[in-house]
Amino acid sequence: MRIVLDTNILISALISPAGPSDSLYRAWRNGQFYLITSEEHLEEFRRITRYPHLRPYIQPAAGTMLNEIRLLAVMVSNLPKLKASRDPGDNFILAMAVAGHADFLVTKDKRDILSMKRYQQTRIITVGRMAEILKE
Q: For residue 36, what pLDDT is reported?
C-alpha cells in the first residue's frame, strides 16, 4: 500500500505523540505501508516546523522525522503541474499522489483536499479511516 501523509498529519504527529497521527506515522515506520514524499513536501515540512509558535512543541523531533522520511520514504520527482485543489498550495500534494501512484492521501484539510474524496486513483481520507483500513 502506498500512502501520502499530508504535512498537517506529520506536524500533528510531532505535536501529539501517541495521538492518531503519530500512530499512523509509527505504522509506516513499522513497515505497514510505503510513504510517498517529494522535495516539495519536505520543504513545506521544514518551513512549517520553523514557525516560532510551533518550535517549542516539536523540536528536536522535527529534525529526526525529516531525516527518517528523507532516508526511508519513497521519493517522487517531476511532479505533474495540477490545478485540482481550490487551494493552489495543495496541488503539489495531489501531484505527489499521482506521481507516486498512491492508494491513499491522508489529510486533515476538510475544506479543500478531504472534500474531494478522490483524485484520480487516490482515495483521500482521514487519519481515523486510514487506521481502520490498516486494521483490516
A: 98
Distance, in Å, from the CA atom of 57 to the CA atom of 80, rounded to the nearest integer, reads: 34
Domain segments of the chain: what residues?
2-135
Q: How far apart are CA 1 and CA 33, in angstroms?
A: 5
Q: How do residues 24-70 score in pLDDT, each as one tens digit?
A: 999 999 999 999 999 999 999 999 999 999 888 887 899 999 999 99
* Overall fold of domain 2-135: Rossmann fold (3.40.50)
Question: How far is it, in rounded angstroms, from Cα 37 to Cα 96?
Answer: 7
Q: Which amino acid is at 21?
A: S
Containing 3, the helix (H) or strand (E) segment is: strand 2-5
In our burial notation (b when 16+ CB lie closer than 10 A, e otherwise), range 119-135 reads beebbbbebeebbebbe
Residue 106 phi, psi (nearest 5): -105, 125
Nearest-angstrom CA–CA distance, 84 and 97: 12
